[in-house]
Amino acid sequence: MTLLHLFFTFFKIGLFTIGGGYAMIPLIQEEVQRNHWLQPTDLIDFIAVSESTPGPFAVNIATYIGAETEGIAGAICATAGVVLPSFLIILLVAKWFLSMQENRFVQGALYGLRPAVVGLIAAAAFSISSTNFFPEGTFSSVNWTGIAIFALAFLLMLWKKPHPILLILFSASLGIVFCSAQEFIPF
Q: Is the dihedral of CA 64, 66, 71, 76 positive or negative?
């Protein structure tokens, strides 16, 4: 793999991702699998770390994947690739959006993009959860600990709405406790 290939791959991801970092996960999964850059479980770990660290998800995940595949130069190329389309699009939008926001084609495009973004995020959630909850791809290898932590985090978000940082720290603590206790409690 060349640095140029890494740059253009993440440029394409950045260009066609509408709706933020979560919406780009299916594109990233497709490219990572097609290029054999990471194992699926490694990608899930990179997604978790990228979401848990400060900064935009897109920049974090591109930097991690670039560094893993091509070192520091790869991190720079992947990060530049994923950021450049947004930068260019924002420049164009800033210049012309106010004059075009009442345009029926612009309104129609935005109307069509909103549900597509929800679909991309839902597809990413399904893909990540299936890889996490069924690590070997079968129902015989269920990650019950992961399902329990997910259910608890989900219920806490619905019921108490804790700050996301607190929820991340709480979930990480549960993971540490469960992993430490695995030798004593068979899951």
A: negative
Q: First vs last Cα of the chain: how many Å apart?
A: 40
- Which residue is it, tokens 């600990």? 145
Q: Collapsing DSSP states into helix, strand and coil, what is residue 113?
A: helix
List the one residue out of 104, 155, 96, 113 whose CA is nearest residue 23: 113
For residues 174 and 18, give the distance between their C-alpha atoms in angstroms, rounded to a whole number.
33
What's the CA gap between 135 and 40, in Å, rounded? 9
Domain boundaries, the chain: 1-125, 132-187
Q: How far is CA 107 from CA 101, 110, 118, 165, in A?
A: 7, 5, 18, 35
**Going residue by residue through the chain (187 aa), what tens digit of pLDDT does each one get?**
689 999 999 999 999 887 677 778 888 989 999 999 998 888 988 988 888 888 888 899 999 999 999 999 999 999 999 999 989 988 888 888 777 778 888 889 889 988 988 888 888 888 888 888 888 877 778 888 889 999 999 999 999 889 988 998 899 899 888 887 766 555 5
pTM of the predicted structure, to 2 decimals: 0.65
